[in-house]
């Protein structure tokens, strides 16, 4: 009996199907990155062109920027969009539409999993904020003494004392929750990426399956966030040292150095964000080692910097606007409540507002980044061939 062809175009015993994953095998390793696989371009290596010709129709060239994608012959009229996006290179509107559709398709994971992860992180941040609040209270008390010594109007001093009672707690909660939420955000985005990848072929994953597949990668995702933070911090230290050296030579040169350092810092952050943008979804969906995934994600963003930067900046602006619309009323509401209640109410309000804004950012940006990852691989690696085959096998 002839062994049926596998989805990568070869023959043999099919490997377990654990999601749409990486070429050449649905749900296995990326091209040239899996154990025992040959590098792309090597003799006998799998390529997008070796994928099965569903409906006796050959797909277009699996290269970035390909045009003229055609629906394979024999497929139903809507088979090119079995899930939340068309299975072809995506436009900006289709990426945003797919991001919103992902929430509607599987809210239990996109909303539920992300909310649980970030809520736990916010709770841990609230605990960490206690010693931070004590530190800020000591520092603020010294500042209060200085203000009281020079205060001429008792009414102004009373107003200052009312506000100053809130400051240490606000700083403590804001810093504590921001740090823990920043570390947990990649894990939440990993859950969103997994759900989006399955929604593409109209499949839903449960909360338990999401944790089984994303949970073992949690330290990879957190390590990625730490690696990005360390890179930004070291570059900032370098810029500060450079400016300090320029001031030592001449004050005017130092002022120019501040301007150049700010531009250089913004350019570096933008470059780093884009070049590491696809690493988080790759860590969840391709299940390789940490450094292998870092290299893999770095290569995926090669040659598409400006497109990804534009989409990322536009998405960040949209998230910021939505965050202001949602977060501002909460902040003002809790600030007003602080007049009638204890400062603890304000601290709780700050933590909840930070959590809501982080949840919005994680869900929307996580979905957009996951779709950018899928779009890039459809353009470069013919991933749409595998997705069509996976959708047909459901």
UniProtKB/TrEMBL annotation:
Signal peptide: none annotated. The lineage of its organism: Bacteria, Bacillati, Actinomycetota, Actinomycetes, Micrococcales. This is Glycerophosphoryl diester phosphodiesterase membrane domain-containing protein. It comes from the Bacteria. Keywords: Membrane, Transmembrane, Transmembrane helix. The chain crosses the membrane at residues 109-130, 170-197, 218-247, 253-274, 309-332, 344-374. Residues 26-68 have a biased composition (Low complexity). Residues 1-81 are annotated as: Disordered.
């Amino acid at each position: 009996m002839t062994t049926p062809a596998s989805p990568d175009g070869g023959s043999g015993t099919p490997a377990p199907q654990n999601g749409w994953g990486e070429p050449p095998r649905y749900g296995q390793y990326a091209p040239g990155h899996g154990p025992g696989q040959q590098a792309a371009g090597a003799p006998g290596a799998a390529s997008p062109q070796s994928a099965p010709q569903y409906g006796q129709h050959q797909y277009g060239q699996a290269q970035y920027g390909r045009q003229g994608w055609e629906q394979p012959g024999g497929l139903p009229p809507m088979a090119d969009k079995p899930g939340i996006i068309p299975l072809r290179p995506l436009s900006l509107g289709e990426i945003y539409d797919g991001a919103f559709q992902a929430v509607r398709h599987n809210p239990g994971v996109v909303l539920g999993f992300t909310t649980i992860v970030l809520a736990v992180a916010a709770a841990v941040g609230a605990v960490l904020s206690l010693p931070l609040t004590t530190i800020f209270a000591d520092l603020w008390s010294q500042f209060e003494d200085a203000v009281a010594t020079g205060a001429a109007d008792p009414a102004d001093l009373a107003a200052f004392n009312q506000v100053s009672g809130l400051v240490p707690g606000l700083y403590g909660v804001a810093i504590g929750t921001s740090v823990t939420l920043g570390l947990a955000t990649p894990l939440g985005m990993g859950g969103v990426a997994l759900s989006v990848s399955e929604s593409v072929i109209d499949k839903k994953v449960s909360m338990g399956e999401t944790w089984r597949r994303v949970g073992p990668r949690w330290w990879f995702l957190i390590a990625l966030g730490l690696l990005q933070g360390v890179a930004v911090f070291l570059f900032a230290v370098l810029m500060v040292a450079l400016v300090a050296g320029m001031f030592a030579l001449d004050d005017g040169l130092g002022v120019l150095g501040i301007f150049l350092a700010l531009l250089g810092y913004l350019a570096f952050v933008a470059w780093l964000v884009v070049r590491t943008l696809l690493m988080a979804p790759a860590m969840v969906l391709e299940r390789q080692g940490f450094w292998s995934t870092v290299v893999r994600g770095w290569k995926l963003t090669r040659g598409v910097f400006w497109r990804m930067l534009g989409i990322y900046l536009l998405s960040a602006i949209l998230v910021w606007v939505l965050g202001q619309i949602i977060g501002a009323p909460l902040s003002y509401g809790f600030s007003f409540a602080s007049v009638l209640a204890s400062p603890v109410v304000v601290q709780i309000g700050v933590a909840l507002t930070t959590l809501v804004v982080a949840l919005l950012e994680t869900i929307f940006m996580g979905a957009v980044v996951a779709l950018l990852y899928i779009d890039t691989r459809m353009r470069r690696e013919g991933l749409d061939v595998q997705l069509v085959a996976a959708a047909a096998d459901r």
